[in-house]
Amino acid sequence: MAGNALVTGGSRGIGAGIARTLAGHGYDIAFTYSTAEAEARQQQEEIQALGRRCVYRQASLEEREVPEETVKWAIRELGTIDTLVCNAGVTRLQTLMTITDEVYDLLMNLNYRAYIYCARTAARHMIKHDIKGSIIFITSTHGNRAYRGDGIYGALKAGLNRIVQSFAIDLAPYGIRINAVAPGATQVRFGSANRWGEWLGPRIPLGRRGQPGDIGEAVAFFADTERSGYITGQTLQVDGGLIIPGMPEDPKAAPWIYGKEEKSWDDSDL
Fold it and tell me: Which domain covers residue 228, as residue numbers?
């Protein structure tokens, strides 16, 4: 297994795990970062230490022209790409009463439109050069299960899970496959901020939170034509069984699900 891959949002967290895993499987890597250049540089060094070529660039993918520019940059740097991993995104949770224009626009542009525009540019390149490539969208279990405050975030993830089905039909005549990987609770940072994750981990059926490498291996599977060449338009949930049990029966276990939120919006003109 070897090739050239572009991973958006590949400097930290899940994206970093994906990029390192693909490099370990023989891929040369191009990746983007948003703000953390020091982390991007360290990521590059770690991938180069594996004997793979690695380039990176800053990319504000929520801006309309940047997704297409980014894919074309990766093609110039690597010569071609046969794998695209759309991972860059943010988690923003707001209830119906507190949704702001800024958060709505950011989620729509970065978590949704950027995926489509990156995929479009990569697909056109693959078709032109007769590359039987693979496109992978990183979505979320929020696309399959509703939680408080994830109306916009979760709906867009669900939309990506659905859109790969239609795109798979569009791309199948060219031998290009597109699939999605939907992570559950994944440990991307360490320290006190992970107290919630430490509580959650033992309650996941497999007994732990996911690691970025777990998601990376799922992506590597979809990228490998020999192992997944007859799979397209699918979403693989990688969550240790997190959402199988459903709603907790004891409200005391999750009061944020059932209780009212503290009012924070302005109703003076209502």
Answer: 3-258
* Domain presence at residue 269: no
For the entire predicted model, the pTM comes to 0.93
Catalytic residue among 56, 112, 115, 153: 153
CATH number at residue 145: 3.40.50.720
Active site annotation includes 153? yes
Q: What is the pLDDT of residues 91-110, one digit of tens each?
A: 999 999 999 999 999 999 99
Q: Per-residue pLDDT tens for 120-159?
A: 999 999 999 999 999 999 999 999 999 889 999 999 999 9
3-state secondary structure (DSSP) of residue 205: coil
The better pLDDT of the pair 246, 142 is held by 142
